[in-house]
Amino acid sequence: MNDVLAAHPVGRLGGTSWMFFSAPAVLPRHGTESLTGILRQDLLAHRQAYGPRPSCAGIGGERLLADLEAVALTGRGGGHFPTAAKWRSLMQAGAGGTVVANGAEGEPGSAKDAVLLQTRPHLVLDALVCAMETVGATEGVLWIHEGAWATARSVTLALSERAAAGLEEPPVRVILAPDRYLSGEGTGIIRTLEGGPTLPRFVTNPARPWSDGHRPVLVNNVETMARIGLVALRGGEAYQQTSLVTVISATHRVVAEVGPDVSVEQAVVAFWTSPDGKYPQAVLVGGYGGSWAAWDGVRSVSIDVAAMRAAGLSLGAGLIGPLPATACGLEESARLVRYLAGQSAKQCGPCVFGLASVSELADDLSAGRLSAAGRRRLTKFMAEISGRGACRHPDGALRMLTSALEVFAPDVAHHRRGRTCDAPAFDVMPLPEVAA
Amino acid sequence: MSRESATVDIKALGIRSGLVMLVTGSAVVTSWLIGLAVSAVVGDRMAPWILGRAAGITSYLLLVGLVLFGLVLSHPHRARWRRPSVATRIRTHVSLSVFTLVFTVLHIVVLATDKYAGVGWWGSFVPMGSTYRPLPVTLGVIGLYSGLLAGITAALAGRIARRVWWPIHKIAIISLLLVWLHGVLAGIDTPAMLSLYVVTGVAVLVLAVSRYTTSSVRDEVAELAGRRATEITPADVFPVPGRADVRRRGEKSARGRIGR
Q1: Which residues constitute the domain of residue B182?
Q2: Pick from B229, B236, B238: which is nearest to A192 by CB?
Q3: The domain A329-414: what is its CATH number?
Q4: What are the DSSP calls for B113-139, one per residue?
């Protein structure tokens, strides 16, 4: 019974009602330009569905914060930090700050933020305006990638729609960040708004990531924003603990919303196209800086922030990357580490030199030419780099590689003295062409 | 004791006894060479002169090695080389500096005390103070002072800020250049010597060019930082044909400045 028999009919998965999408969105493997499956909601459709946006100034903001605490909303960019706590630390810094809706999903595999901005832009913009009113910010920013033109079109059109409807709202700027993995990193966004480069920086106090003498900045991921929008428009009682996931197949990607009782297996059966009709051998969960999990261990785990954490995983940016039974997990991991090492901001030694060395050793391992001394060096480097960068970039790469060495341990034993596991060479996870 | 740690112990023992043999062997060879040199020049009136020249050439070769190792230490690709290890590179650089100093002192002492050399203590330390070939000797004297400056600043590394000592340390380049000229102008009496200066000079030049033209991590960060985020307006995304202010994607004028 190792075959994926009849795929579950695509539709309602789990016992919850939909927050965003009643059907999955389908995208190509690369880029976010030709989205199919979900129609864009313009301002009129949005207002018909949700009604007018309530004011979030003063008492409205307090109510929103209480609702966000009641539903225990955490950041969906991958960090899963409590949203209300983040807002309160900005409110302590005083009024006149900037609120950023971060839609530059750096994860090349993930597309959930692009799908949200292309189909539900007003949910995000309502939340952005509400956030500005609540924390007393005077400026809003929509932060997206340079190459994400379909997304840029959708959000600028949405802003035009709002202006044409005569909405009295604080200004929202659309800023395009360079196309690279770390462009969505929070400290890099703040550094850019302060007139600096779009590169991460050391932050001594995570509750005050902005520089003294500059505007306080609040950065929330786009999915987090859309959820805030739903809470603001419908109240906390109607909120459902769903998750947006991107499931990667060999030919396409599916972005879908799943309830907290949907297992990884159900999502894989519904949204993944197996190249050989078999279940995957393992699943990459969270992102390219997430963790590999063996199929037998992860298949019954629910796609839910808490359930994932209980299973020792993190839902991260919502990436579900099944590895076909015929593929080689070590080759795939070495490829991803090489990509992540190439995407380093080149600012911290552990990342520039350490991650590059780890990547070379991982390549040696996948090619079956890693000696025993090389194995020891790999373990040593991985221990030395961990937790030492300004941002969490090297940590993510190491987490993924560490999980690969555990999950694919039989393969590690096999990849020796020039032997590999003879898997056909094909790339499972999509990477941008420009990656070194 | 596990089998693996026993292997390691035997390996460590082998390395240690190898080292002892190496040191003993090199001591024997050195003594033999010194004996050979002494017996060759003993009773020779030219002995101090020959010794001074030999010390000078040795000092020059050590200085070349010192600078080559310095270039290796600061090369942008240093992290890609696994052997010799970083610790070995630094130790070698430091050891070479010590030996360079020792042979330079020998070179100076021998020639300053040689009554026939026409250099004297005055000429050894004061520019243009030598009666023998004043200009080449002066180049050597200034080379010595700049070399000392480079050495002293490096010795203080770790105690004073890198931005203070590192720029001063680069005076080592001037030191080598002056010493090279000192050698070329005052130290060539056979064609073999000329080729020595040419070959060593070219070696340093090649490595220096590679070190200063290879892009470093800092260059890469500058390149990454140079790609700025840009602000867009609806006109960038939905160009209106025929309008003068139509901005096209990627066009500089359309790009708003971010930050204040």
Answers
A1: 46-213
A2: B229
A3: 1.20.1440.230
A4: H-TTTS-HHHHHHSTT--SSSHHHHHH
